[in-house]
Amino acid sequence: MLHPALFAYARQPRWWALLIIGLWIAHSVATLSLLSPWIMAPVVVGWLGLGWLFRWGAPRRPRTQTRAWPWSLLPLALWGLYVYLAASFGDVDLGAVFFHLQAGMEDHGGTDRNIAAVLYTFSMAMLLIAFTWLVRVDHRWRLGERPLALILLATNPLFYGVGQRSAAIVTDDGAWLERRYVAPVIHEAPADPPNLLLLYLESLERTYADTERFGDAYADLAALGQRARVFEGIQQLENTGWTMAGMIATQCGTPLMPAGLLHDSQFEPLGKVVPGVDCLGDLLDEQGYHLTFMGGASTAFAGKGIFYEDHGFDRVLGREALLPQLEDPDYLNNWGLYDDTLYDITVEEVRQLSQSESPWAIVNLSLTGHAPEGYPARRCEQRQGEFDGVDILYSVKCSAWLARDLVERLEEEGLLENTLVVIASDHLTMRVSAWEQLISGERYNTFMLLGNDMPPGNVSRPASTLDVFPTILEAMGFEIDDHRAGLGVSLLSPYPTLVEQHGTQNVNTRMRAETALQERLWEGLVPEQQQEEEATTTEQIVETPEDATNEQPAYAQ
C-alpha cells in the first residue's frame, strides 16, 4: 500500500508541473543525443530531485503571485517543434519544411506521423501550462525566465539556420552557384537513342551495402551491381535531402531551393515547380521521347505532378490514375500502391511503349523503403517471412529484391534492348530503426547504370546527386557542354565535380547565401516589383578573384 505522504505530494500541483517539464527535458535529451530511451528515467529523477532541493513551486518566502504570461512560451514551443522534427526525420532540413508548406501537403501518406503530431501538440500544451503555472507561483522562475527565453532562442537550430543564411546574404553577393550553373543543352544525339528506365528506390542509400552493419539487406542490389557501373561516394548536399529535392537534383542538376518570399502568392500552393530551368524531361521531350512517370503515391503531394507535367512528361501516373488497374483495390498502404503492384503495372507500361517506334523513358518512384519502417509488399512477406512492423532492414531487403526482380523480368522478355537502366536512391533515409548504425560512418546514395553497353565496374570519387543528371545524359550517348549540366559534372568524364573542387561543407555554406540561383529556379514567380528593383541594381560584389564573373568553367580552375 502506498504511503500517505505520497498522496500528499501527488495533491500538490507543483509536482505535476515539475513532472511534465522533466518528462519533456528527458525526451528531448534522448531524442537529440540519440541515447537509449532508458536515459529518460535518471533525467526525470534528477530533475525532480532539483525541484525538491530548491523547492521550485513552493518557495520558503513566497511573493505575490502574478497572472503575467511568460516570455518563454514561444521559444519553448519552437524548441518543441524542433524536437518533433528531429524525432520524425533525424536530420532537420529547413528547406524541406518551407518547400512542403508552399508546395502543398495534401494526400500525405504519413498518417502515423499525423498521430504523433497530435500527441506532440497535446504534450506541448501541457508543458506550456505547467511552465506558466510555475512562473506565476514562484518569483525565482519569474526572475530567470526572460534570460531563459533568450537562451532558448539563441540555441534553437531552427533560428541558427535562418540567422546563418541572413548573415551570409549580408556579406555575399548571392551568386556563387549561379556562376557555376551551365544550362543543359544536347548538342548531338546518337543515331539510335536508347530508352531509359530510371528507378528511384525510396531512401535506399548505398550505406546499406556495408554487410558488417546491415547484413544482406542490400544483397540484391549488390548482385545487380556486379554487372553495372556503380558509383560510390555520391554525397547529399543541403536542399537535396527529400524526395522532390532528390528527383530535382538528379534530373535538373540543381538543389531545390524553396521559393520562399519569391513566391508571388504566399498563401496558395505553388502553380509551377522550378519553372526557370530545363531538366531531364525537357531535354528528352525535345529529342522525341515518350515520357512516363509512375509512382504509387499521390502526384498531388509536394507538387510532384506539377513538376513532371511542366517538364515534358506525357503521362504522370500516381495513386489516383493507377487505382483502377488494381485487382485488389484494398491492397494499399498509407501512401498508395505497394511496389509489387507498381512494378507489375510498370512491366505492362514498358510492353506498350516498346511497340512504339519512338524512344521512351520511364521514371519510377518506389515506396518500400520509406521511413520510419517501410512498406514491404506481400511478395516479400512470402519470401522473407512475417514483418515485425519496425525493422527497416526488412524493408530495405524487400525493396532491393523487388527492383532486381523487375529488371530481370524485363530482361527475360527482351524489353530492355537498347535501354539504359538507372537505379538510384532519391535521398538518404530519415530516422529509422537502424539510425544509430547509419550515422556511425559516412553515408552515400545509391547510383548505378546498367545496360546500353555500359561497361561494369566501380567508380569511387567525391560527388553529389547533382552529378547524376549529366552522367545519365552522357551514358545515353548525348553530347553536352563540357560534360556539364546544371551544377553537375558527368562522372563518366575526368573533370572534377563541385564537391571535389570545393568540398561538401563549403558548397553547403555557399548554398545558404545563394539568391541568384534561387531566382533562376523560380523564374516567373518573382513579384514584378522585386524584379524591377533588381533590374536597377547593376553592381556586382566579387568575393574573391577566382569568383569573378569572367571565370573559367569550374573544372578548369
Any guess at the CATH architecture of the largest domain?
3-Layer(aba) Sandwich
Structural class: alpha/beta
| Low-confidence residue ranges | 163-171, 261-267, 527-557
Question: So what's the CATH class of the largest domain?
Answer: Alpha Beta
Gist of the model:
The chain is α/β, with parallel strands linked by helices and 557 residues long. It contains 23 helices and twelve strands.
Write a structural description.
One of its GO terms (molecular function) is transferase activity. The chain crosses the membrane at residues 15-32, 38-56, 68-87, 115-135, 147-163. Helix 13 links the parallel strand 4 and strand 5. The protein is built from 23 helices and 12 strands. By secondary structure, the protein is α/β, with parallel strands linked by helices. It folds into 2 domains: 9-171, no CATH class; 190-541, 3-Layer(aba) Sandwich (Alkaline Phosphatase, subunit A), CATH 3.40.720.
Question: Helices and strands in order, then pairings?
Answer:
Elements: H1 4-10, H2 13-33, H3 40-54, H4 73-89, H5 94-103, H6 111-137, H7 139-155, H8 157-171, E1 186-188, E2 195-201, H9 211-214, H10 219-225, E3 229-235, H11 243-252, H12 280-286, E4 290-295, H13 304-310, E5 315-317, H14 319-322, H15 339-354, E6 360-365, H16 378-384, H17 392-412, E7 419-425, H18 435-438, E8 447-451, E9 457-464, H19 468-475, E10 479-480, E11 484-485, E12 488-489, H20 498-502, H21 504-513, H22 516-521, H23 528-535
Parallel strand pairs: 2-6, 2-7, 3-9, 4-5, 4-6
Antiparallel strand pairs: 1-10, 3-8, 7-8, 11-12
Helix pairs in contact: 2-3, 2-6, 4-6, 4-7, 6-7, 8-21, 10-17, 15-17
